[in-house]
Design a protein that fits this description.
Two copies of one chain form a homodimer. Chain A is α/β, with parallel strands linked by helices. Chain A has helices spanning 18-26, 46-63, 77-89, 103-112, 228-233, 243-259, 261-281, 307-319, 344-360; strands at residues 7-8, 69-74, 95-100, 117-123, 147-150, 152-153, 158-159, 171-174, 191-195, 206-211, 299-302, 322-323, 334-337. In chain A, a hairpin with a 4-residue loop joins strand 6 (152-153) and strand 7 (158-159). In chain A, helix 6 (243-259) crosses helix 7 (261-281). The first copy, chain A, is globular. The two termini of chain A are 41 Å apart.
Amino acid sequence: MASKRVYNFSAGPSMLPLECLEKAGSEITNFNNTGMSVMEMSHRSKVFTSILQETKAGLKGLMKIPDNYEILFLQGGATLQFAMVPMNLMSRTGKADYAITGNFSGLAYNEARKYGTCNTAADTKDRNHTYIPAQQELITDKDASYFYYCANNTIYGTEWKYIPETGDVPIVCDMSSNILSCPVDISKYGIIFAGAQKNMSPAGLTVVIIRKDLPGRQFDYTPVMLNYEVMIKKDSMHNTPPCYNIYMLGLVVKWIEQKGGLEAMEQLKKERSSLLYDFLDNSGLFKCPVEPDSRSGMNVVFSTGDNELDTRFVSEAEKAGFFNLKGHRSVGGMRASIYNAMPVEGVKKLVEFMKDFELKNK
Amino acid sequence: MASKRVYNFSAGPSMLPLECLEKAGSEITNFNNTGMSVMEMSHRSKVFTSILQETKAGLKGLMKIPDNYEILFLQGGATLQFAMVPMNLMSRTGKADYAITGNFSGLAYNEARKYGTCNTAADTKDRNHTYIPAQQELITDKDASYFYYCANNTIYGTEWKYIPETGDVPIVCDMSSNILSCPVDISKYGIIFAGAQKNMSPAGLTVVIIRKDLPGRQFDYTPVMLNYEVMIKKDSMHNTPPCYNIYMLGLVVKWIEQKGGLEAMEQLKKERSSLLYDFLDNSGLFKCPVEPDSRSGMNVVFSTGDNELDTRFVSEAEKAGFFNLKGHRSVGGMRASIYNAMPVEGVKKLVEFMKDFELKNK
């Protein structure tokens, strides 16, 4: 049934571990001898409640999430968090700091301006978002309601290698594209959120990790579904949550545990990305525009500098079984997204293919 | 693999057609020879775009949706629509009419009061929501921004058998629990929305059918994800939609087409619900509290009038393979939710079981 599988370098939705898909497929009409699919279960049934609680417990263990944080399973993707964060936190002082290091932090900034004053703590568009600002370059305000940044910039291929120092100002971080790729000190954050469709689960689930003292300051007009306090109180069940995505996340969490946890994921991340960056730095044809110490371990951006050749590369790569290598339209060139589920083997084969392509096109 | 399946009378999430689950299972690691799961596809890829467009076209054909309406695939369930509707429409006149016929229309009313003046067009709590008000009982305001009602009350087992007459005031309708169960004259509505997890697809998808002239009046603070105008312009792809749920909906739409469309669904709805109501009206043990002309074809509420006996019934039914028959905590007793995917056979067997139970417990 499975037979042919391709190497899928999509930026998201992206590859899921084959073992998880196969497990899901094997029980799609009858989960654990219940006689029904997880898709068909009442979200308030004992069996689904235990799936949700196991998934939460698994994620808590994997990420070493302290007890004063809550894990929420929400909907609407990171883009809805762009509004939900200020609709709950902005009233603290009426202003917030935003570090803009790419497309999505820019969108978050634009959205947050509906709800208060947004200060630009950094903006890397001066060098086309090819770098992450250093701590001493950040302009922070000790009276900010929160400090906001995006940990990994999917489009530009950059990744923060440090957690900003903001004093007492809570940090809000969009980790959509690098969550679960390495251990993280959760205690440094106020809120971490992530759309699930890159490293966690199919699209339609947003995971939020929130320090329990932060909610309770929403505006009067904040919808009940965008009220963190309500969602904590109802344990993500104010209404029907995206049950099947939560179940799939549970399978992925178990898969990561079996592979050795986040330390193992970090090791694999280094292995995959080094294969590509080492090749790129020694290539006479391909270049990576990102400054070396800012390079993402999840999204590797590169090009030949020749649009026509780039297009040919993407097309020939696809014929050879390497899919979705076209770069985002705002950057051009190519992008290889290499999340947890991408086998090292897939990256090795891609590098071989790139070497061949280079030889033929020097 | 599938083997044992039970009759699942859950109010939602609820049964899906077995054929759709089996089809999904057969291609879960490799859709249509693409070498990837639908869960893994870029939402902007050609293959996923065609899944989305086919699902839209299928739904448009099935429901005979006129060209001046748009179909949106959103997230957050009906509960997020409770806010999204007023955040986009309330500014027309600052007030709206709400017919409260159960739990969810009450919640919608409470949410909408954050955004304007809500008038009670009807409130059926005087007789514990056991009836639907007649047209002449509705108190409507010709200056209302919109008129709101919930077409089927899952908890109380009532269903509107007519479309309210509201003059030029657009009608907004929550059809979460009876959408796709019969043909509907879409042209009478301004907005129809439905959480997918009852008659359409797994939880995590909200289908909105909206007349194209209605959006564009959102408040300044309306989040971009809750702006119908943006969602129409981006064809539900402002960010990553719940792709797998859209794919599952496409399978369900095809299944309904093959069964004979919404006329066939209506016929089956009558057949299933008549089996239960006819039995209940002649039973010496079980009673249905709902007034005959207001009874739902989707959720059949009943009880013995004795809590202890009700509990025993639910427990013995489960042992016999009839699941999730416990009524909602606010009503008590039992509830059999009999959506499109429930085979008539399942209802026949349930009635047989109820007859037996009655004989043993008179």
